[in-house]
Amino acid sequence: MPLPTQPVLECHAVSKQYDSRFVLRSVSLQLAPGERLALTGPSGSGKSTLLNCLGGIDRPDSGDILVAGENLALLSSDALATLRRERLGNIFQFFHLLPTLSVRENVEFPLLLLGVPAPERAHRADALLRRVEIAHRADALPSTLSGGEMQRCAIARALVHQPALILADEPTGNLDSRNGAIILELLQALTDETTTALILVTHSEEAARICHRGVSLRDGVLQNHSA
Ligand SMILES: Nc1ncnc2c1ncn2[C@@H]1O[C@H](COP(=O)(O)OP(=O)(O)OP(=O)(O)O)[C@@H](O)[C@H]1O
Ligand SMILES: [Mg+2]
User: Fold this and answer.
1) Pairing assessment for the beta strands 165-169 and 88-92 based on DSSP bridges
2) Which residue of 47, 141, 153, 218 is most buried, as measured by CB atoms within 10 A?
3) Structural domains of the chain, with CATH
4) Residues 159-180: what's their mean pLDDT?
């Protein structure tokens, strides 16, 4: 009998208000290792707020969020920071690369925070830069890259420390369709290869297609697409 696998993420009845208006209403969801979930919904429906709560950047008013079995609300701020560094990777619409660091240094950065020795950092960063096909730009500053190259760098950075879960907020929102398609293919292939779970916030049906299932938010209420 196979061992039951622990969910990467469990979210139970999470609610959050801004200015006494509900932005999330009793949101519950679970994610298994390697599972890709598309999160859609109109602008202002709470997608980024949910992603920020799941990533421990924001706190819900009520409900529980467990990442790799750890209840975020019960962790000290140090323990939460450690969990985020070890278990999570983030990808953003506007890349959020560190402008004064080279491409390689950006990718190494999560490993630097985890105390990984320099030779191993460089080795792992270079392997991923080759995988996302920007090894030839490793010594360049991010400002000299194209948008598609910046997002490849951001994908390498999000995966370099082998997180359990990647939270991606509209990662193709600032790219043309060709580069968007390349980014989606890379996200699909790399999360498959590493059994990394992914939550993909997207307005694009094309993007949602790389996911195993989809949910959408309407006025803070989560709906299952299959329901
Ligand atoms: N810090 C904040 N203070 C007050 N209201 C906020 C705050 N952050 C978000 N909101 C509000 O919460 C609602 C949900 O915002 P959120 O950014 O989660 O939406 P979204 O679904 O990500 O939208 P988009 O598709 O435009 O990115 C919006 O009405 C927004 O104005
Ligand atoms: Mg948003």
Assistant:
1) parallel
2) 153
3) 9-224 (3.40.50.300)
4) 95
